[in-house]
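Sample entry (325 residues):
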Amino acid sequence: MAIGETTLRAARSYLASVLPTTPCVFSPTLSKLTGCEIWLKLEFAQPTRSFKVRGALFSIHSLPSAPGRVVAASTGNHGLGVAYAARLNKVPATIFAPSGANQAKLAAIRTWGAEVVEVGKYWEDALAAAKAEAVRPDTALIHSFDDPAIVAGQSSVAFEIMEQVPDVSAVVAAVGGGGLISGVGAALHYLAPGCTVWGAEPAIGPRLTRSLEQGERVEVVGFKSIADGLAARALSELTYEMCRRYVAGSFTVTEDELLSAVARIFLSERLLVEPSAACTVAALLQHRGSFSGTVVCIISGSNIDTVVARQALSVDPPAVAGQEV
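Predicted structure, serialized as tokens:
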């Protein structure tokens, strides 16, 4: 299913009225390391410290009528976005999360006023519980990526990038269920057809990489990455078809490379971000020969667990990017 330019622009217009434009900053260190001009799109500057609030807000805004309640499945950031959007719309929200999800994120969800229910081991277990709850009258399920309105909401990132770095030649986005990268790819198809869009994902869960290689949607079962925001087993039919059309390719990175990228971003930019967000920089550094010109890495969020932060910041600095600067 294609999402037309009119819908993408409608999402951009609405979200510009309710959310801030996030900064896009130049990185001299990453530019020197890669031989490219590297910019970082700082999505943690959103109220929920993640880009996910974009899609959540536009999804609720796009419902045919105001719901009495919304439900969602999330490992953290989508739940934060839904909780924030529900609060803004004065609607109760229940977020279903897998047991063992990032407790800092779950605590933040509760802070925004949503109920949190932990269920099952994986994100898919939480989704099944949310779908079961959504059959109740006047209850709407806000899916984290399998929803055209979610994808359109996430596409607003690309509109901002084009205003901030108009000569961008490539954009790198992390891949979980594919909502962000498919939205960005669709928007850039209209805004900058010459700009390529690349995915970045954990090597232990290479859903997009395998799907593009095999020419069909691939499910990867049973992985658990330190990039907890990239937990979906597979893209949806919607996001897969959009990625097949708009995304040039995808790179994988190891768990150690994810931690190293968190450390590199902290050391060079003095920004502490979660591994899911650092995935784009990890891919850039490990596959830098694949990039040229002006590259924007989307830094998707900063809701990092304290234990993971300590682990990442213990990485030996000279080894972070494979060379010293």
